Please model this.
Amino acid sequence: MAPLDVLSTLAGEVRRDIAAARERDPAARGVGTAEMLATWPGIQALLAHRVAHALHGAGVPALPRAIAFAARSLTGIEIHPAASVGEGLFIDHGSGVVIGETAEIGNDVTLYQGVTLGGTGFSTGKRHPTVQDNVTIGSGAKLLGPITIGHGAKIGANSVVVADVPAKATVVGVPGHPVSVDGRRVEGPDADWIHLPDPVADAMRTLANRVAELERTLAELRGETPPPIDPATVHPLRPVKGRNPAGG
Ligand SMILES: CC(C)(COP(=O)(O)OP(=O)(O)OC[C@H]1O[C@@H](n2cnc3c(N)ncnc32)[C@H](O)[C@@H]1OP(=O)(O)O)[C@@H](O)C(=O)NCCC(=O)NCCS
Model:
């Protein structure tokens, strides 16, 4: 690509980044472009990344890493120059954000402070997440490994996500699990209280069987007729009508 084309692409990307911050940051209302460029760490880090990424793509040595390092020192946001970032990314507050080398981010994604798009070990090749369009990732969330976060998903603050996330799902917790998909609550196996194991009934059944066994042995020792085998009946929990208390 000719240098002028590169510059015009960069300018367009930065304009989209500033517009994204305006749309999604209530604190940006009424703030001018120059002020945002000077004081919004998310915008500064992205501007630096767009330049570093273009230089990295052009095969320029060392400089892209130096730019990424300087941006990290200034903003607390570390984006590897090779990471692929779509248009309209908004990083709110910034501090503690890490975006790894093989991470891929789609368009109109929002990240809050403390988000990690990281690898899980020392493997090489694709080892960081792919985040599709319109995803929101809450503060402190860690997304680890070459997983895919589906279009429009929301990741809860402080979640640790190590598996693919379906489109339009909301995932929370450690490890991250979906609590809703496309606005509908997810009733997973954990909510199936009717089929939960019943350890008390199991223990009573075992004790009753041992008593029966002892009674039979005692009868044999006394020369009496052993009682018939009559395994104790322990009634399992019965389903009750009404709201599922585990289902929320
Ligand atoms: C995940 C999130 C997007 C949920 O949005 P939502 O779709 O409205 O979901 P709800 O609030 O209805 O929560 C659904 C369930 O998940 C739980 N939950 C929500 N966020 C959670 C989180 N971060 N960690 C653990 N559980 C969470 C809720 O308590 C609720 O549980 P319940 O079904 O037992 O009542 C939101 O809670 C979140 O974490 N946003 C990130 C915001 C952020 O980082 N802001 C930083 C600003 S500086």
Residues 161 and 176 are 5 Å apart (CA to CA). The longest helix spans residues 199-222. Confidence is low (pLDDT under 50) at residues 242-248.
